[in-house]
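Quick note —
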Amino acid sequence: MEAIPRSLREQEYSEADHDDALLRERSLLYVAATRARDQLAISWSGQASPLLEGVAHASGRTEHGDNHK
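Predicted structure written out below.
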């Protein structure tokens, strides 16, 4: 089962569209992270999003340090 249909993955997007989508994703992550009151748990399956690079190391605390490069 695919999370994103092949027809949508194969569409061509302009660099500006890609940049806008990335900015929206980054903004959503920021809002979610800054709304955490006591704790923030971030998880992923497979490879972590590039948006998370440095987040685990910057926090100084990880549960599975071998997942972070």
